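Fill in residues.
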């Protein structure tokens, strides 16, 4: 059957009472888990894994899948309202969402978030149904050289385009790379930079990093600088609807973010986090309201939100078509399939079309459910803003501690989160960026792993990394971006300045 026939067949499979309830339960649980810092999709999928043993395979997969992209919705809510990311991909939502909430526009910010997530997820599902097999086959030709070029080249590009001075980006990036290699070496098993602390061999938890560096840093800022969390005295339904100006500023961002998210979701590693970061940076350059970035730009919220849901959906293509989980959450889904004797791969669509097309169709249904759920529950989430600081801040800290600790049941993670909270506060105070720390920690281990695998395969020949055709093409693209971007930026700056001067002369002509 062709993709459209397959999608219609999947809808007929998914539109049963049992499967609809499974999608609703997964979406609701995912949203709630996303609101709790530290739970994240990995822990959520692990918690829900026993459900797959009770139900049939498709029902269990629908629950876990619903939870997976439900967390993409819920994790952004605490980022917007309290600047406390629910998980790593939600970090970027706080950059513009939190300033919007502080300015009294929490309702429209959450409305834009819900719409962006729906557009990114739904569009990605439709494209997924059409290109799953062909796109997954392309990934087969990627080896260590290609992945090394992709990860290291992407790190260089992202670090270069994050904005600010060169020092403000490179020093935090170096710190993030150091955090990324801390712990036990995956190949040799030797402990690195642990200084004899046994718990440090686990490495730095991404939950401790996200909560400490972004959440606890914000709490420290509020306490020390006597700031305040955002307040909403009253919120009527009509206040949740974005204005016409918000919609105009968001439309292009939604589709650009969806495209970025879908493309990066096909790649291994922290693709969802990377897609949000790349989308945010792109919107800061081409967004309609880019002059408001850092102060509550709608495009800087809409783009990353659509990107993270699109990436979450497209990341299922390698799992379903190749049997290769490119994230820990998808690895849990793979385990659930194997328990029932189902091996995902190129033959899945023919040997088990009910599961293949039913799961894809359930993603479409789940996105509709999530939109309706989040729009109707926005007033509940915004009510959190009316809690006094002396009650809210201790409660938030307690939730952060609980989330960080329960992720790996480690006191060491609590110490790491607290330390990163203090470090993050001083980094912000002295105008250093926090995002490169996250980038270095996420991507650094991947760069190292692909390099070591490649150097072993090539018997120590370093030219292997640049002589492979695809890898060479990636390096050429990276070089062009790194070299050309400063030139484009300089040209745009001069053009903007010339426009300002021309406008000023027209308004105030000299006598």
């Amino acid at each position: 059957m062709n993709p459209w026939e397959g999608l219609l067949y999947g809808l007929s499979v998914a539109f049963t009472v049992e499967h609809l309830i499974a999608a609703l339960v997964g979406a609701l649980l995912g949203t709630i888990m996303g609101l709790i810092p530290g739970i994240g999709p990995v822990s959520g999928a692990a918690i829900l894994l026993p459900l797959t043993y009770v139900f049939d395979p498709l029902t269990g997969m629908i629950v876990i899948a619903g939870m997976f992209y439900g967390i993409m919705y819920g994790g952004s809510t605490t980022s917007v309202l309290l600047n406390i990311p629910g998980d790593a991909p939600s970090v970027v939502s706080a950059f513009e969402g939190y300033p919007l909430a502080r300015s009294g526009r929490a309702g429209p910010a959450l409305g834009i978030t819900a719409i962006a997530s729906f557009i990114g997820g739904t569009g990605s599902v439709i494209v997924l149904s059409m290109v799953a097999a062909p796109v997954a086959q392309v990934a087969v030709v990627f080896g260590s050289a290609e992945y090394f070029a992709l990860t290291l080249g992407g790190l260089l590009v992202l670090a270069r385009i994050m904005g600010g001075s060169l020092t403000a980006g490179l020093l935090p990036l170096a710190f993030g790379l150091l955090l990324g290699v801390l712990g036990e070496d995956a190949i040799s098993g030797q402990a690195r930079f642990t200084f004899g602390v046994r718990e440090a061999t686990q490495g730095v938890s991404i939950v401790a990093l996200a909560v400490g560096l972004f959440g606890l840093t914000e709490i420290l800022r509020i306490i020390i600088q006597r700031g305040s969390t955002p307040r909403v005295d009253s919120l009527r339904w009509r206040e949740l609807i974005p204005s016409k100006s918000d919609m105009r500023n968001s439309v292009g961002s939604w589709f650009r973010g969806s495209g970025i998210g879908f493309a990066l979701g096909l790649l291994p590693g922290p693709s969802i986090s990377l897609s949000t970061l790349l989308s945010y940076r792109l919107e800061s350059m081409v967004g309609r309201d880019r002059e408001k970035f850092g102060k509550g730009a709608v495009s800087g919220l809409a783009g990353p939100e659509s990107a993270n849901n699109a990436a979450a959906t497209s990341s299922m293509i390698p799992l379903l078509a190749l049997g290769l989980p490119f994230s820990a959450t998808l690895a849990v889904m793979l385990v659930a399939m194997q328990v029932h004797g189902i091996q995902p791969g190129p033959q899945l669509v023919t040997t088990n079309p009910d599961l293949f097309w039913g799961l894809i169709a359930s993603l479409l249904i789940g996105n509709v459910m999530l939109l309706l759920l989040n729009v109707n529950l926005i007033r509940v989430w915004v009510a959190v803003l009316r809690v006094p600081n002396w009650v809210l801040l201790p409660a938030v800290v307690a939730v952060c501690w609980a989330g960080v600790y329960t992720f790996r049941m480690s006191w060491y993670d609590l110490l790491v989160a607290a330390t990163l909270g203090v470090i993050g506060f001083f980094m912000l105070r002295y105008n250093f960026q926090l995002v490169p720390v996250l980038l270095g920690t996420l991507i650094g281990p991947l760069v190292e792993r692909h390099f070591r695998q490649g150097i072993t395969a090539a018997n120590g020949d370093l030219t292997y990394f640049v002589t492979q055709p695809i890898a060479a093409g990636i390096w050429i693209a990276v070089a062009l971006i790194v070299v050309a971007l400063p030139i484009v930026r300089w040209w745009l700056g001069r053009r903007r300045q010339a426009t300002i001067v021309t406008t000023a002369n027209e308004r105030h002509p000299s006598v």
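The two ends are 75 Å apart (CA to CA).
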